[in-house]
Design brief:
Helices cover 6% and strands 41% of the residues. The protein is mainly β. The protein has a domain of 323 residues. It has a 14-stranded parallel sheet, with helices on one face. Strands 2, 6, 9, 12, 15, 18, 21, 24, 27, 28, 31, 34 and 37 form a 13-stranded mixed sheet that branches. It has a ten-stranded parallel sheet with strand order 4-8-11-14-17-20-23-26-30-33, with no helix packed on it. The radius of gyration is 24 Å and the shape is elongated. The termini are far apart.
Length: 462
C-alpha cells in the first residue's frame, strides 16, 4: 500500500511538472501596406508559453464520492456556482475512482480553495439533473461534471468525463488551471460544452477526445480572459448551432482534428483562435445580412457588442480548412484579422473566400445598418480561390505574400466602403472578374488579367 502511494505521488509530481507546449503562432512579417486607409495591419498575437508546475502535494486520506452534497467553500453565491457532490479543498492525489452527480445544479467533482489535485484513471459522471440557469452554467460552471475554480489546479490523466443532462458541461475552469491528458470528455445534452475556460481560467489538453452531441453545444469554449490550449486529439460536435470552437478568449490548437457535423467550424467573438497542423471542417452556420440574402460560413468573426471596437483574430498555419457548403470566412460587426500560411483550403464552387458584411441585428450583433466589418486577410505561401466581398458598411484588405497564388476577384459588385490589395514580390493574382479597389500596392505584373480589369478609384490599373 505504501509503495502504491509513493508511486502515485511520484507520477502526480512528474505530470504536474509537464509543460504543455503552446503552439507557435503565425507571427506576421512586415505590416500590411495600406495607403490612405484607416484599416489596421493584420497581426497575429504571439503564442504564450504555458507551463503548469505547482509544488508536489501531499497525499491526504480520502473518502469515496457520495451522492450527498459536500460542504462548499465558495466566494460565489450558491445560486450561481451550485454545489459539489464531491469537493476537494486541500491538495490531494487520487486514483481509479468514480465521481458522480444526479442532482440539479451540482458538480460531480469540484476542486477549489487553491487546492492542487492529481487524479488518474477516474470516471466523472454527471448522470442527471438539468441546470436551473443556462447563463450560470456557462458563466460559472454550474452543473458541470467537473468544475475547477478559485485558484485551484486539477490534473486528470487517462480519465473519462461524461455529462448527459441539459445544460451540463464536461470540464470547466474559472480562475483556475485544468489539465487533461489522454482522456475523454463527452456530453450528450443540449446547451452544453466539453471544455470551457473563463475569467482567468486556463485549460490544457493533450491527446484528449472532446465531443458534444446536443444542439447549441460547442465543444470548446474560451470566455473572456479564458485560455484553452489543445495538443493532439479529436474535437467534434454533432448538434446544430454547435461549432467546434467558440472563442471570446484565446484558443490555441496544434495537431488535432476538428469537425463540426451540423454547424460552422469556428466562431470568434472578439477573441483569438490560432491553429497549426490541424484538419478542420464545418457544415456552415447561417445569418441574415442587412440585405435579403442569408450568409453561410465556415468561420465566423463577429462581436455581440453594440460597438464595433472589439477585434477578432484567426490564424492558421499548415493543415486543412474545409467549408462543407457556404463561404469560408464571414466577418460582421467587428474588426477582424485573418492570417493563413500553407493551409489547404477547400470551399464549394461559387462560394466566397471572405465576406464582410453587416447583419440584420436579430442576434444582437450590433444595430442593423451600423454593424459592418473591417477585415484584413494576409496570406503567405498560400493557394487561395474565391471572391472577397464587402458591403457598403464594410472594408476589406487583402495582402498576398511569398509564393501565394490567388484566383478570384475583390469587390466585384463595387459596394465596399474600402477595398485594398497588396501584392508582394513573388505572389500572383489571377482575375476571374473585374475588381474594384480603393487602393493597390505592389507589382502590376503579378496580376494575370484573363481579360478582366482592376479598377482603382474608377481608374483602370490593368
Amino acid at each position: 500500500m505504501r509503495q502504491t502511494s509513493h508511486s502515485l505521488r511520484r507520477m502526480f509530481s512528474a505530470l504536474l511538472a509537464l509543460s504543455f507546449a503552446a503552439l507557435a503562432a503565425c507571427a506576421p512579417a512586415d505590416p500590411v501596406v495600406s495607403v490612405g486607409s484607416p484599416l489596421p495591419s493584420a497581426t497575429v498575437p504571439a503564442t504564450p508559453d504555458v507551463t503548469l508546475t505547482p509544488e508536489q502535494p501531499s497525499a491526504t486520506p480520502t473518502q469515496a464520492p457520495q451522492e450527498a452534497e459536500a460542504t462548499v467553500q465558495s466566494a460565489l453565491p450558491e445560486e450561481i456556482s451550485g454545489a459539489g457532490a464531491y469537493t476537494i479543498t486541500t491538495s490531494i492525489s487520487e486514483s481509479q475512482k468514480t465521481y458522480f452527480s444526479e442532482l440539479a445544479d451540482e458538480n460531480a467533482l469540484r476542486v477549489e480553495n487553491r487546492a492542487i489535485a492529481g487524479i488518474d484513471g477516474a470516471k466523472i459522471e454527471k448522470r442527471a439533473g438539468d441546470a436551473s440557469s443556462l447563463e450560470n452554467a456557462l458563466l460559472y460552471g454550474l452543473n458541470a461534471a467537473a468544475l475547477v475554480r478559485a485558484g485551484a489546479q486539477l490534473l486528470l490523466v487517462e480519465s473519462e468525463i461524461t455529462a448527459a443532462p441539459h445544460g451540463a458541461g464536461g470540464a470547466f475552469a474559472s480562475d483556475a488551471r485544468l489539465q487533461l491528458q489522454s482522456g475523454i470528455v463527452r456530453t450528450t445534452g443540449g446547451n452544453s460544452y466539453a471544455l470551457a475556460a473563463v475569467r482567468g481560467g486556463s485549460a490544457n489538453t493533450r491527446d484528449t477526445s472532446l465531443s458534444t452531441q446536443g444542439a447549441s453545444s460547442p465543444a470548446v469554449v474560451a470566455g473572456a480572459e479564458g485560455e484553452v490550449f489543445i495538443e493532439g486529439g479529436m474535437v467534434a460536435t454533432g448538434g446544430e448551432a454547435s461549432p467546434v470552437i467558440a472563442a471570446a478568449g484565446s484558443v490555441i490548437v496544434s495537431k488535432a482534428m476538428l469537425r463540426a457535423s451540423s454547424a460552422e467550424a469556428i466562431t470568434i467573438n472578439g477573441g483569438s483562435v490560432s491553429l497549426s497542423d490541424c484538419a478542420v471542417s464545418g457544415r456552415t452556420g447561417r445569418i441574415a445580412t442587412n440585405g435579403a440574402q442569408t450568409a453561410t460560413y465556415c468561420v465566423l468573426l463577429y462581436s455581440d457588442a453594440m460597438a464595433t471596437d472589439s477585434r477578432s483574430v484567426f490564424s492558421m498555419t499548415r493543415g486543412a480548412l474545409t467549408a462543407l457548403g457556404g463561404d469560408l470566412f464571414f466577418a460582421t460587426n467587428t474588426s477582424a484579422s485573418i492570417y493563413l500560411e500553407g493551409v489547404a483550403l477547400s470551399l464549394g464552387e461559387g462560394r466566397a473566400l471572405l465576406r464582410a458584411s453587416g447583419n440584420d441585428g436579430s442576434r444582437g450583433w450590433g444595430a442593423a445598418d451600423e454593424n459592418g466589418a473591417s477585415c484584413t486577410l494576409v496570406a503567405k505561401d498560400q493557394t487561395l480561390s474565391g471572391d472577397v466581398i464587402a458591403d457598403e458598411r464594410s472594408t476589406v484588405s487583402l495582402t498576398l505574400r511569398g509564393e501565394t497564388v490567388y484566383t478570384g476577384a475583390v469587390n466585384v459588385a463595387n459596394t465596399a466602403r474600402a477595398a485594398k490589395v497588396t501584392l508582394e514580390d513573388g505572389a500572383i493574382w489571377t482575375l476571374t472578374d473585374n475588381a474594384y479597389l480603393t487602393a493597390f500596392t505592389g507589382r502590376v505584373s503579378g496580376i494575370v488579367t484573363n481579360g478582366f480589369t482592376v479598377y482603382v478609384n474608377g481608374v483602370p490599373l490593368t
